[in-house]
Amino acid sequence: MWEEKLKIYDELVSKCPRFERKGKTMPYTSANGYMFSLLNKAGEIGIRFSKEVQKKYIEEFDSTIFKSYNSIMHGYVLIPENMLEDLDGVVKYLDESYDYVMSLEPK
Hints:
Blueprint: H1 2-14, E1 28-31, E2 34-39, E3 45-48, H2 51-60, E4 65-68, E5 71-78, H3 87-102
Helix pairs in contact: 1-3
């Protein structure tokens, strides 16, 4: 199951030419010194947004805060399973997240 989710995550990231997937055991994307998406060991995808946008998307997606390794990932939204059926739709959120971390002070 995790391998299937990894394929979906890789396909999602491959649709975004401005960045690439990193990490061997914990796949993620990062830019400007900030991680902005990841695939946890449960096979769930989380994408990072500003606090205001996170709150909006949790309601809009009927989702929750993303957790990884039993830790709450502040700023991350759990991407619901049903959204993964339309990766082109999810690409815009991943691009939005990339733009968000690029607007932050570099680490």
